[in-house]
UniProtKB/TrEMBL annotation:
Keywords: Chaperone, Cytoplasm. GO terms for molecular function: signal sequence binding. It is found in: Cytoplasm. The lineage of its organism: Bacteria, Pseudomonadati, Pseudomonadota, Betaproteobacteria, Burkholderiales. Chaperone for NapA, the catalytic subunit of the periplasmic nitrate reductase. It binds directly and specifically to the twin-arginine signal peptide of NapA, preventing premature interaction with the Tat translocase and premature export. It comes from Sphaerotilus mobilis. This is Chaperone NapD. GO terms for biological process: negative regulation of protein transport.
Amino acid sequence: MGLDELHIASLVVHTSPSRVERIAAQIVAMPDAVVHATSERGKLVVTLEASSAPAMSLRVSDIQHIDGVMSAALVYQCADSLDAMNEELPDA
């Protein structure tokens, strides 16, 4: 891929229930990170965007190393050129 690309990943992050809010706050403070949902059982649904595979790997690693994170499981990942990502699709 070239320089103008977009990588998108989704993760399920698991922590103890008492740490969900603190960890969610740390994740949303990261660039291009969104916490879409949290559960009382200590799970968070997160999406990340990055401009390259190494940048995405670093963001995932940063989440894995937050104090209190038990696991950060990659659920989905895709990458494409910005042109392809911005292409208008016709209605079906």
